[in-house]
Write a structure and sequence with these properties.
heterodimer, A: mainly alpha, 5 helices, flat, B: mainly alpha, about 90% helix
């Protein structure tokens, strides 16, 4: 399981976060603000969250757990993704984000929760993915 | 609007987390998974070994002696690795089967020191 989790964290999570890291570094190099509000203030982390979580959700949906659990999980996962996507769209409807700090905090909270879900999903898929 | 969406997404994500934890618990409880996992690994190893044998057969009949030696080393290394993996899996599977049998008979799980001595025996083997 550790190997599969490490694979997901490195090639899924870390690789997805790389553009944000590069953005922060470029900002630092340019002398522009590179804090949490500046880098994540437009909901960029929400995009990463959606991108890393959905493949992990798929592992549970394609696994051998009971149909009811898969149904509940799949429904909730899709709903969560739609809500995250809607939140991102809603944030970017405004030409200038009024409260980047709030957006950054919300993004980080959702990212952490989705990271926890993804970890569980990868653990669930451990026994099934190699069948 | 953003706040409402955030709260909805958070609630939905937490519910998803709870359901996924329930799925994990269910998977852990099911005894057959480990057996299926072991079988799948054995099938993978069988595939690897077949590939190695095929490669070796191709190279064995080839003209280049040096390549032959290199491949022989690689094939032998691969077979040794596969054997080690099979031994580990067998020990792991036996431990799981014993644990399951104990559980079915209503006995408490093996003590930690028993497990560690078992794993050290396996390592020595």
């Amino acid at each position: 399981m550790a190997e599969r989790l490490a694979q997901w964290y490195v090639f899924g999570v870390a690789a997805s976060l790389l553009p944000l890291l590069v953005d922060a570094l470029v900002r630092l190099d340019d002398g522009r603000p590179a804090g949490l509000n500046a880098v994540l203030g437009h909901g960029e982390l929400l995009l990463v969250t959606g991108a890393i979580a959905f493949p992990a959700f798929g592992m549970v949906v394609m696994s051998d757990v009971s149909r009811v659990l898969r149904g509940c999980f799949g429904g909730l996962a899709v709903l969560t993704e739609i809500l995250v996507a809607s939140l991102y769209a809603s944030i970017n409807r405004e030409v200038r984000v009024s409260n980047p700090h709030s957006v950054a905090v919300q993004s980080v909270v959702l990212f952490l929760v989705m990271l926890a879900i993804g970890t569980v999903c990868v653990a669930v898929a451990r026994t099934e993915a190699t069948l | 609007m953003n706040q409402a969406l955030f709260v909805s997404a958070l609630v939905s994500a937490i519910l998803t987390l709870l359901v996924s934890l329930q799925a994990l618990r269910t998977e852990r409880r099911r005894g057959g998974n480990h057996l299926r996992w072991t079988r799948s690994r054995i099938r993978e190893l069988q595939g690897d070994i077949s590939q190695l044998v095929e490669e070796w057969t191709v190279v064995r009949d080839g003209p280049d002696d040096q390549r032959r030696v290199i491949f022989k080393t690689e094939v032998q290394g691969g077979i040794a690795k596969a054997r080690r993996a099979l031994d580990e899996m067998e020990a792991d599977f036996d431990a799981q089967a014993a644990e399951r049998a104990r559980r079915e008979r209503g006995l408490p799980p093996l003590a930690q020191n028993d497990e560690s001595s078992h794993s050290s025996d396996t390592g020595a083997a």
